[in-house]
Amino acid sequence: MSAPILSIRDLRVSFPTPAGLVRAVRGVNFNLEPGELVGVVGESGSGKSVSFLSIMGLLPPHAQVSGSAILAGQEMIGVDRDTVRRMRGKKVAMIFQDPLSALNPVQRVGAQIVEMIQSHQHLDDDAAHARAMELLDLVGLPQPDVRARQYPHQFSGGMRQRVMIAMAIANDPDVLIADEPTTALDVTVQAQILDVIQEIRRMTDTAVVFITHDLGVIARIADRVEVMYAGNCVEKAPVGDLFAHSNHPYTRGLLASLPVVGRDRLSPIVGAPPNMLAPPEGCAFRPRCPHAADECRGASGELVQAGPTLSACVRISEIGVSR
Amino acid sequence: MSDMLTVSGLVKEFDVRSTKGLRSSNQRVQAVSNVSFTIGNGETLGLVGESGSGKTTVGRCVLQLLAPTAGSVVFKGEELVGIDRSRMRDLRRDMQIVFQDPFASLDPRLTVGSAISEPLAIHRVEGDHDDRVRELLTLVGLSPDHARRFPHEFSGGQRQRIGIARALALNPSFLVLDEPVSALDVSIQAGVVNLLHDLQDEMGLSYLFIAHDLSVVRHVSHRVAVMYLGKVVEVSSAEELHGAPAHPYTEALLSAVPEPDPVVERMRERIVLVGDVPSPINPPSGCRFRTRCGRAEMRCAEEEPVLREVSQNHMVACHFPNEVPITIGARPA
Fold it and tell me: Which of A190, A222, A254 is the last residue of a domain?
């Protein structure tokens, strides 16, 4: 195993609000190896997006961030904005759910990609333009030379997402963070975009963090999965093991709630995710967990080996470890 | 089984203004084009399709929330198209709708109890409305005390239950469910899906279940109709549609849905459709799917395929249904 390209230690993010401190991320540890694709899965409010926005320096200024995130040897937390800006776009890039709001509506698409290239590389206009064409071709945009002269509103959702991906990989970043990039797209277009992301991995060796709530998408493209709940990672495993031998009640609950073939009645998880103003002490899943006991109040959240997965559940050996 | 709802030849056109430079012109877009289907008593018909397929417009036209341009909608033997307003208002007691966004569909200033009892007041239902509200809240799995609270105090899943309680207030026999679980997290979605199942069992409700998520549709529907660019391209039982899809678009749609199983996902052969859905303002001639179809031939451009039966209760609008095995649709190199 090589050194991780991204190493997050005890990341915490809180937002002061009139009602109190919302603790969105509560001690996340995360490693990303060069070239791998890690799926980060969790429901709304689990902290999956906020964790990675904080590394990109994209949270509003009032957010309180602590911990460490070392990306390609550079600390990203608590450093000055210029340092983060130099890294962003060059070493790490991010794509979002809504590509329209991430593109400049009054600038031609080609010019936006050229700007991205020239802000990190010393290329003259012709060379940067040639590189932009190459990128648009790589992401499967038909007629790149024609398309580059158009504006974002002339593109469909899928095509805009391809443009976003082209911009993200323009400077060969080591890490690409994809935050629900296919959630707003129709399934047939989603399939195209997932293919583009996999193609890019084959060609560039970029490591990808893929944030999603869709376990089907995770099953399709991830090498490894981290499951988040209430600001913590509760289980991590290679993708095959997570689906076949999950060892956390929350992950098991998520899988049981999916409408799959042959399942007559779905099993929802009872209750709702906790209020992050005052998350439950110990294991945050405790109030919704069918196996909760007193000892769960003192759970540290530390991940321990349980069968093929790493699980934060302190009662997993009593509940039954799947191997 | 008698039919609850019969829709035939439904057409809905909208005027759109398109601007090119300084010139603008009026154009018509046919959002729903000659759509026919039936829904039996106690039956769920799933209506699936991607954005712009016209599925939501069909739902609105069925309830006469939008006036159809042409066609007929017969509900319990009564023609709804062109019906007078007061009769339609009476009929709405019996046909209700649940919307996708439980945050937008509830008035933030009304207590949950007032929101649920509003239809009772509008239709001047006699009896104790508060009792009925408590009964409805219990029916959808909430607490009767919740009647005094406001929508912002509830989670998405709970709000959707409130929306369902409101739709059920007048004891309807038919519900249009327009993406009722799309905005919910999976662990919450499962509970609402189960609730809809239970309500159907207990009250014998018929549903038109509109959704883009095929795995949910497969789970809740008896039969499924697939729409593409304003047309129904295939109708069949949920099992047969998923087991033996006959239309190439249905095949592609099913193959695009990621299954939550890495073993299956990595083994399966996938049909990746090229390009995007064409503009409904200027749809392709003949078969509307032909521009993205791997089976398309000359005939598909010249002659529009009509919906015909390929096996019992399985209708397909394709000149070449299910004749080529699953590897259709060229992928970009």
Answer: A222
